Amino acid sequence: MPEHSTPAAVAHRFLQAFGDRDWEALGELFAKDIAWSMPGSGTISGNAHGPEEALRRAREIAAGGVRTELLHVLVGARGVALSLRNTAEAPDGRLLDEHLATVLGIRHGLIATIDSYLSDVDGMSAFFVR
Q1: Which residue ranges does the record assign to the SnoaL-like domain (predicted)?
Q2: Which among 12, 30, 42, 130 has the fewest CB atoms less than 10 Å away?
Q3: Ordered structural domains, the chain, with CATH
């Protein structure tokens, strides 16, 4: 497997593209059939299918001013789990401060699945209120 497509390398490219708000680079990492699950009842919750919906979700998270801190990269046989901390403050004073695991399923060097596990589902839902 080429070094740039190892699961850890894909995970770091994912975080770099998101952090840089480089939507083209992020989209290039997604498989055509990507599925992204997010718990809760917020505007970013539910299942996103396909690169366009996944990019729409990433853009909405970024538009909320979310800052992502990487705590750990955990490599598995079929992908990578990212231990993260997300923080943000909305213009009206609402705060987001959560720990999460973002699990990337990697297939042929592309992200096929993203499953998000949150420490504060209600807090995320209140921050990204419908």
Answers
A1: 12-112
A2: 130
A3: 3-127 (3.10.450.50)
The pLDDT tens digits of the residues spanning 1-47 come to 455 679 999 999 999 999 999 999 999 999 999 999 999 999 999 99
Tell me the C-alpha distance between 30 and 118, whole Å: 22
Cβ neighbours, 10 Å, residue 53: 16
Rounded CA-CA distance 22/38 in Å is 21
Average pLDDT for 67-93: 95
CB 39 within 8 A of CB 120: no
In the chain, which ranges are continuous DSSP H helix? Answer: 7-20, 23-28, 50-63, 121-127
Any residues with CB less than 8 A from the CB of 123 and at least 6 apart, and which? 96, 97, 98
